Amino acid sequence: MNDLKAIVEATKEKFSKSIDFLESELLKIRAGKANPAMLNGIQVDSYGAMSPLSAVCSITTPDPRTLVLQPWDKSQISAINRAIINANIGLNPQDDGQVIRINIPPLTEERRKDLVKQSKQEGEKIKVAIRNHRRDGIESLKKHKSDEGVSEDLLKSMEDKIQKLTDEFIAKVDQVLSGKEKEILSI
Fold first, then answer.
1. Across-strand partners of 45?
2. What gap in Å lies between CA 71 and CA 160, rounded to an integer?
3. pTM tops 0.85, yes or no
4. Please, which residues bridge with residue 100 across strands?
5. CA quadruple 160, 162, 168, 171: dihedral positive or negative?
6. Rounded to whole angstroms, how far apart are CA atoms 48 and 70?
7. Which of 12, 41, 55, 169 has its CA 20 to 30 A from that of 128?
8. Identical topology for domains 2-28+108-185 and 36-103
């Protein structure tokens, strides 16, 4: 009995991690507003070693259309500029020798639609992952079919719990995507 509950809990934990991953991936999709997460994944050549951008500077958003990067070491400004340009994310950094400013251009209608489509693709990947976790959970439950004290009804009840959780988390994916779509489409 406890093994079955542990399987259901482990499956629920995998579902939660999938939602967290989706939210972190959607942060990288720019919605027209400046967001430091837009620069996640950019690596800077810092003293011969590749470092994440956040390790070599602070990133702030003084207004909805601007990112300001304050390098810890002023000699790193050109390396940070190069890294942002080489990341090919469509942003033009401008430095004044002290800080780097990145103006976020407003999105065109076509670009907004592309970003919504990209968000939905990310959501679809997560839905597939959730369904795969459901399948794995149910298969793990079925391995306990011949265990003593595990009735068909109990097994069916646990499978129903996993299905109910699956439905909840799929709805949560739709909810997250809906919020991102509104964010992208709002001007």
1. 50
2. 53
3. no
4. 69, 95
5. negative
6. 20
7. 41
8. no
Residues 56-82: tens digit of each pLDDT: 899 888 888 888 999 998 888 888 888
51 forms beta bridges with 44
- By residue count, the chain amounts to 187
Mean pLDDT of the chain, nearest integer: 86
Contact assessment for residue 160 and residue 98, using Cβ atoms and an 8 Å cutoff: no
CATH code given to domain 36-103: 3.30.1360.40
pLDDT at residue 151, rounded to an integer = 82
Q: What is the DSSP letter of 140?
A: H
Could you write out the three-class secondary structure of 53-111? HHHHEEEEEEECCEEEEEECCHHHHHHHHHHHHHCCCCCCEEECCCCEEEECCCCCHHH
With 0-12 / 13-18 / 19 or more C-beta atoms within 10 angstroms meaning exposed / middle / buried, residue 57 is buried
Second-level CATH architecture of 2-28+108-185? Orthogonal Bundle (1.10)
Q: What mean pLDDT is predicted for residues 20-25?
A: 89
Q: How far is residue 30's CA from residue 36's CA, in Å, rounded to a whole number?
A: 10
Domain boundaries, the chain: 2-28+108-185, 36-103
